[in-house]
Amino acid sequence: MLATPVMQGKEVLAVVMALNKLNATEFSKEDEEVFKKYLNFISFVLRNHHTTYLYNIESRRSQMLLWSANKVFEELTDIERQFHKALYTIRMYLNCERYSVGLLDMTKEKEFYDEWPIRLGEAEPYKGPKTPDGREVNFYKIIDYILHGKEEIKVIPSPPADHWCLVSGLPTYVAENGFICNMMNAPADEYFTFQKGPVDETGWVIKNVLSLPIVNKKEEIVGVATFYNRKDGKPFDEYDEQIIETLTQFLGWSVLNTDTYEKMNKLENRKDIAQEMLMYQTKATPSEVESILKYKEKLNVNSIEECDQKDLIRILKEELPDPKDLELYEFRFSDFPVTEHGLITCGIRLFFEINVVEKFKVPAEVLTRWMYTVRKGYRDITYHNWRHGFNVGQTMFTLLMTGKIKKYYTDLEAFAMVAAAFCHDIDHRGTNNLYQMKSAAPLAKLHGSSILERHHLEYSKTLLQDESLNIFQNLNKRQFETVLHLFEVAIIATDLALYFKKRTMFQKIVDAIEKMETEEEAIKYISIDPTKKEVIMAMMMTGCDLSAITKPWEVQSKVALMVANEFWEQGDLERTVLQQQPIPMMDRNKGDELPKLQVGFIDFVCTFVYKEFSRFHKEITPMFDGLQNNRVEWKTRADEYEEKMKVIEEQKKKEEEAAAKKG
């Protein structure tokens, strides 16, 4: 015998043998040489054939992955549709007569009520096969792809145990053990019970089988893919195994997409439920609305739907306070004498004063419900509560009306500005943006910048999504989009981090207005340019937000203490929760430095705002005057504190010198 291998690198492609030399007892050296020369030619043909085969294998693999990827990322809704689309699209590259995909139930634990019969002995515990991660092997759906004869796809939910694919026990074995099974002569196998004859009316017979588990990123078996009868009649080889294994791995990993989609859907649903719960708790109840809009008492009806809007507007006006009695048009307005419920009626009054309720057909009950709901949206915290929210809304109203800035804006814009001012700090938590970031609060993860301001904006928009709270419900689409944009500009502008960016732009507008000779020229200069109007509005929001610093001293001193207390509460949290030393402004132990800090805040932040507004409109000068008066008060107290500290330092120094001499 003369034998030699045909090699492709280190791989043996074939063995060629010559047997029993004629007329001789053995092959000679010359025979070996002739044999090698012959093999040089024949091995080239074999290697070429093998290279072509490998090329076809890689081409199939690439096409399968390409098309399956295309379908996998096209379909993210659920695993069944994803697998079906991918496997159906690549059927021509699978090179088999049939294939079947069994999807496994992913439930790991039974419901408690399903366990009761077993625990009571009324039912036998499950003793069948389990997946490697402990789940019962339960195929909840099988999809059969029939490619011979007439192409057909059959989807079998809750397949019976005698289904032609399951009856052999091979898919169950693969699901239980996670093995790849390649059976060259399936009917002859003794371990599995494959049907030896036709499996159905088509006369099709099982010859060879390749079965693989589909495994996800968590290494859980999510299904079993089984392929039957290679088209050329040969058994499935190692290259078929590699191709199909690559495909099942890719499909398994792609389950991450559907899992993520499902999680996102659940999160979306949870968000909707949470929002619904929030609205139920926050939204003004019928009795709360009726405490202001007394339609039952005054109109003698049982349901508000029976009332005419004109009657509702009339009786609502009767319940609202006189603006003059409470000084709602004055910059010096103080909320202290008014109850929180009274501030709701004051807020409604302001919308009537700017003549937007009748003009934009705002239903009386919707306006009342919205105003009451905004009040309930503010948390019961030290400073950033409903009283602060109302004060900002009242100051915006006063700037527009008493400050004469309304002439640059339309009625719709004024409506949106006052409404946004009321909402600007809704659901404030009593801590600033920096604390949200330091504590890794969910809000900080949701919003990259202007964290709390964006939350106030989103909360405000959420209220308007409820038709029974939407005070802008009778606007057309374009008008409503304008309102939402103005809400965004106004509320985000209250972030003091943005204040320094806009002050120069505002100053340039004021400089230009000062040079103009007529009021008409100034109105035209601003009103025709939306950007200038937005810059002024943004600065107005800053002026409103800081307006407590301009109030009469008896009001300002109390409000400053409330602000300081809220800062100190945050400082306490930083010290206890974050284990960090708070800055002096937040440090309760440095409370005596409050006057000094107030003087610094007035000089560094506030003076520019009110000085420029007094230049812009002389009617706003009372705010600047109030600021200067308060600075004098705070400076006096800061100087007294400095003098006191100086005396203490000198006394301490004398005591140290005396102790040193004695020593």
How does this model look, in words?
The protein has 23 helices and eight strands. With 663 residues, the chain is an alpha+beta fold. It has a six-stranded antiparallel sheet, sandwiched between helices. A two-stranded antiparallel ribbon has the order 1-2. A hairpin with a 2-residue loop joins strand 1 (2-8) and strand 2. Helix 2 (79-89) runs antiparallel to helix 5 (238-282). It is elongated and about 130 Å long.
Topology readout:
Layout: E1 2-8, E2 11-18, H1 29-74, H2 79-89, E3 96-104, H3 112-119, E4 139-146, E5 152-157, H4 170-177, E6 181-183, E7 209-215, E8 221-230, H5 238-282, H6 286-290, H7 295-299, H8 309-319, H9 323-326, H10 340-353, H11 364-377, H12 386-401, H13 411-423, H14 433-438, H15 442-446, H16 451-465, H17 477-492, H18 496-514, H19 519-527, H20 530-545, H21 553-576, H22 594-616, H23 621-662
Antiparallel strand pairs: 1-2, 3-4, 3-8, 4-5, 6-7, 7-8
Helix pairs in contact: 1-2, 1-5, 2-5, 10-11, 10-12, 12-13, 12-20, 13-17, 16-17, 17-20, 18-20, 18-22, 22-23
Helicity level, as a percent range? 55-70%
Mean pLDDT: 91
pLDDT < 50 runs, ≥5 residues: none
**Strand count, sense and closure of the main sheet?**
6 strands, antiparallel
Spatial sequence of strands, sheet with the most strands: 5-4-3-8-7-6
Terminal residue distance = 115 Å
Radius of gyration: 41 Å
DSSP strand count: 8
GO biological process, one term: signal transduction
Protein name: Phosphodiesterase
Enzyme class: hydrolase
Binding site for AMP: 384-388, 425, 545, 598
